[in-house]
Write a structure and sequence with these properties.
By secondary structure, the protein is an all-alpha fold. It has 13 helices and 2 strands, in the order αααααααβαααααβα. The chain starts with a helix and ends with a helix. It comes from Spiroplasma platyhelix PALS-1.
Length: 333
């Protein structure tokens, strides 16, 4: 099953004093809105970057070939992540629309992984608001995430390569001598070679994954054929890529926590009650968010490499304790 029967029966028991059904609390509509908001925000960021590209060129000395390559690389990365944000948003919306409350709870780690991979903030926060019950996933990451990433990269990395090379070839900031683009003795040439190599390699991996995984529209069909060394190799590569992304997410979450703590210390030095209260609130929110992100991310990473390909997420004890205390307080009032 997709959930812990004991927890489910307990919360749905009519004799339960709290009368609380955990799966009625799934913020399905908010989850959809978060994807729309995140996609719109990423598109706005892309538009802002493009509108200021000339200013960035001028600020970095636009005649320098290295700066041209760096600015084009930043544009390519932004466009790729905009595409990935759009695609993963569609996947999450589809899950939200087609899955039952129980399935969403059980597979919330996939929602979190897809959102965290594009730097999402609100969706992982919503995932922490899912009912705090022990669950076991119904979607195996090697099957689902490999197919998802294959389609994402098949479209995304050609866009990434074009977004990098086009500004160097055409437009007001194009370089005069096109031979410099792949000149291995220059920084621009090294960047260009790396961009092209990564784009071709990841596109080929995505195409191979899509071709091999396409016949297996049903997860059980894939499981029955997953003893193939080629299937294991390809899925392991994708799991490694996603794991590296999640490791970076953990690192950045620690940086965010350090920054919030630093802001709190600076607010104390500058004085002012309002400033200190705001900094304290920011620190508390950051600690809560980082704690939940670390918890869900580590569980996701464990699930990616589990033998049976499933993820079991237990109760988050701090949240559970807080809810129990709140319930006791309400009963005593």
């Amino acid at each position: 099953m997709a959930y812990n029967n004991n927890d489910y029966n307990h919360y749905n028991n009519p004799n339960n004093a709290n009368g609380y059904n955990p799966y009625s609390a799934v913020p399905r509509n908010w989850l959809v809105m978060a994807q729309i908001f995140g996609t719109v925000f990423s598109v706005i960021g892309l538009i802002v970057y493009i509108s200021y590209m000339n200013d960035i060129y001028n600020a970095l000395a636009s005649d320098d070939l290295t700066n041209k390559a760096i600015v084009s690389l930043m544009l390519a990365l932004i466009i790729y992540f905009v595409w990935r944000s759009i695609y993963t948003a569609l996947i999450i919306i589809r899950l939200a629309k087609r899955s039952s409350d129980e399935e969403l709870c059980a597979n919330r780690y996939i929602i979190s992984a897809l959102s965290l991979g594009v730097g999402g903030f609100f969706t992982p926060f919503l995932v922490t608001a899912f009912p705090n019950v022990a669950t076991t996933s119904t979607i195996k990451p090697r099957y689902f995430l490999s197919k998802t990433m294959a389609i994402c990269t098949m479209v995304g990395f050609p866009i990434f390569a074009l977004s990098y090379f086009l500004p160097l070839l055409v437009g007001t900031n194009a370089i005069a001598n096109k031979n410099y683009i792949f000149d291995a003795s220059s920084t621009m040439g090294v960047i260009s070679i790396i961009v092209l190599t990564i784009s071709v390699s990841v596109f080929a991996l995505g195409l191979m994954t899509w071709t091999l995984f396409l016949p297996y529209k049903i997860q059980n069909d894939f499981d029955n054929n997953s003893n193939s060394k080629l299937f294991k190799l390809i899925s392991t590569i994708w799991m490694s890529i996603l794991t590296i992304e999640l490791v970076f997410i953990l690192i950045f979450s620690f940086f965010r926590l350090i920054a919030a703590f630093s802001d709190f210390l600076r607010a104390g030095e500058r004085g002012g009650l309002f400033r200190m209260m705001f900094a304290l609130l920011n620190l508390v929110v950051t600690i809560t968010y980082v704690g939940m992100v670390i918890y869900i991310t580590t569980k996701t990473m464990a699930g990616l490499w589990s033998v049976d390909g499933t993820v079991t997420i237990g109760k988050y004890e701090h949240t559970s304790t807080a809810k129990n205390r709140l319930a006791e307080t309400n009963m005593n009032v």
